[in-house]
Task: inverse folding
């Protein structure tokens, strides 16, 4: 498992070059892309495609080669394999065969974006690529909106407007959105804008809708800067919950109370369950 540069070829590690130069076989998501990296460093190795469409079928053959003593390196087009890229199924098959899997760390788009984002959040949740269909995407965001963490997603340029529109609906309270694009490349962009104004910002910067993007929805600034007043929270819920539960099922009551108080919906729902005999 070997991480490769996101764009700037100088970001590869010395250890990664040693491994690529000594491997019997290199498995690559797109051999045309990886061939450019290998040629740049004068690495001549056998290169074979391993992508989402053939990963499961190729796993047995790869395990067989490893059992014969061959050294195999797995890379993706850019960044770290198995992080929203092929690789996890192969790794599982190799581990199931009691063979070692050695990570060669290096570039990762989500970590690069987080490091340059200046987040309020103390924690983050990486959701990878959201569903392509809007209905499914909104449903997934509904399950993620109560997380007390920054939400990080990858997105393709032709879907970024639709996804940001759904993010605006899912997170109605004031939040910032970090838009990271073309990381380490010539037209690298890392911008922090109010989520509610993100579409307007895109209109003013149409070039942003090119290249793969990392989107980070930060937590509200007050979430990290204002201490929780537990006694006040309990008093507020004591006023809201009885009336809400008379009119609404528990899940909807928790959602309304969360919107009214700013408390995590999951925490309120736990309190509702505690109230039941």
Result:
């Amino acid at each position: 498992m070997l991480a490769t540069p996101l764009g700037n070829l100088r970001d590869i590690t010395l250890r990664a070059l040693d491994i690529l130069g000594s491997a019997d076989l290199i498995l690559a998501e797109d051999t045309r892309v990886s061939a450019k990296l290998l040629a740049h460093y004068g690495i001549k190795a056998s290169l074979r495609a391993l992508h989402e469409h053939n990963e499961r079928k190729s796993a047995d053959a790869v395990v067989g080669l490893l059992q014969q003593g061959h050294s195999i390196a797995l890379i993706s087009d850019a960044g770290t394999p198995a992080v929203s890229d092929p690789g996890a199924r192969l790794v599982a098959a190799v581990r199931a065969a009691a063979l070692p899997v050695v990570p060669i760390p290096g570039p990762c788009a989500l970590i690069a974006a987080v490091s340059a984002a200046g987040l309020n959040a103390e924690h983050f949740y990486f959701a990878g690529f959201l569903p392509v269909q809007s209905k499914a995407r909104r449903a997934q965001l509904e399950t993620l909106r109560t997380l007390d963490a920054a939400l990080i997603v990858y997105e393709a340029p032709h879907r970024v407007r639709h996804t940001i529109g759904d993010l605006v609906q899912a997170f109605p309270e004031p939040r910032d959105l970090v838009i990271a694009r073309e990381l380490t490349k010539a037209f690298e962009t890392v911008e922090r804008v109010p989520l509610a104004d993100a579409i307007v910002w895109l209109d003013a910067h149409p070039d942003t809708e090119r290249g793969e993007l990392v989107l980070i929805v930060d937590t509200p600034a007050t979430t990290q800067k204002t201490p929780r007043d537990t006694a006040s929270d309990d008093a507020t819920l004591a006023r809201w919950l009885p009336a809400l539960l008379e009119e609404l099922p528990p899940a909807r009551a928790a959602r309304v109370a969360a919107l009214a108080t700013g408390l995590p919906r999951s925490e309120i729902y736990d309190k509702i369950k505690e109230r039941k005999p």
Notes: The longest strand covers residues 124-129. The domain at 9-96 is CATH 3.40.1010.10 (Cobalt-precorrin-4 Transmethylase; domain 1).
